[in-house]
Design brief:
- The structure is a single chain.
- 22% of the residues lie in helices and 25% in strands.
- By secondary structure, it is α+β, with helices and mostly antiparallel strands.
- Helix 1 links the parallel strand 3 and strand 4.
- Helix 1 runs parallel beside helix 2 and helix 3 packs across helix 4.
């Protein structure tokens, strides 16, 4: 959805066999002033699991004041989410000066975004009202590599942000720039000047220890052994607490009460 009718919108694709659409919410409309960016929360339900994900998709506005309004709206919205979420897209923001070529002097919106991720510049005070909402997923970019390239310039404007509770559950697979295509005039141009970011949510797997071998399992005898063992343990514990002056009747009553 293109809020301004002047900038690129957001397109999200997902596998129907893995996710089921729940709702789509325009988060950008919650900003305290108009802006050119696009921020929307795509809520998907994991098929076969009682698990919802919030994919907060962002196309950040380039203007500083509009960008700050957009960031504050996202900050308020993300802070209120209880289900797992991922905040991702083209933010048009860098976090560190060396994330751009040539090096970029951080703007006010860059600094605000950095503090939202817990990466604020050490020599800079935190902006008023800023909250740390999460942290960036490591995109595994090499030295001098950026998510956005145009000619000899580049910058890392694309980010994947996660809450701290989900950070260890995600991993970057790769960040690759799309191939080029030939225009009608014969000039090669890339299909996009932004890299394709591939991340995956890891699923914990059980680990088998020792040698695996087939074993016959008799459910009836196994449960019988468990009940017999539990009965013996309980009986011995109760009989072991009898006092010397207790008669057989009191001992039997105590045992029956414990078993019932």
């Amino acid at each position: 959805k293109d809020r301004s009718r002047r900038t690129g919108g957001v397109v999200v694709l997902w596998k129907p066999s893995v996710f089921r659409w729940v709702r789509w919410l325009d988060v950008g409309c919650l900003a305290d002033c108009p802006h050119m960016g696009t921020v929307a929360d795509l809520v998907l339900d994991r098929v076969g699991r009682d698990e919802q994900f919030h994919f907060v998709c962002t196309y950040g506005p380039p203007a500083t004041e509009q960008s700050l309004a957009c960031l504050r709206a996202c900050q308020t919205y993300l802070s209120g989410l209880e289900d797992p979420w991922v905040w991702l897209g083209d933010f048009n923001l860098v976090v560190r000066p060396d994330e751009a070529r040539p090096r970029r002097v951080l703007r006010a919106d860059d600094v605000y975004f950095a503090f939202m991720l817990g990466e604020g510049p050490l020599a800079t005070d935190a902006p008023d009202g800023v909250l740390q909402v999460g942290a960036r997923l490591d995109l595994r970019l090499g030295a001098g590599e950026f998510t956005f390239k145009r000619g000899d310039t580049g910058s890392t404007l694309d980010h994947i942000v996660l809450p701290h509770s989900e950070l260890d559950a995600w991993a970057t697979v790769r960040a690759a720039h799309p191939p080029s295509t030939t225009r009608q005039d014969g000039k090669l141009i890339p299909l996009s000047d932004h890299a394709l970011l591939h991340a995956r949510r890891t699923i914990p797997r059980s680990v088998l220890l020792g040698t695996v071998r087939p074993v016959r399992f008799n459910t009836k005898s196994a449960w019988g052994h468990r009940e017999e063992t539990e009965l013996r343990r309980l009986s011995e514990a109760r009989w072991g607490t009898r006092a010397p002056h207790d008669g057989p009747g009191l001992e039997l009553e105590r045992l029956c009460t414990a078993l019932v």
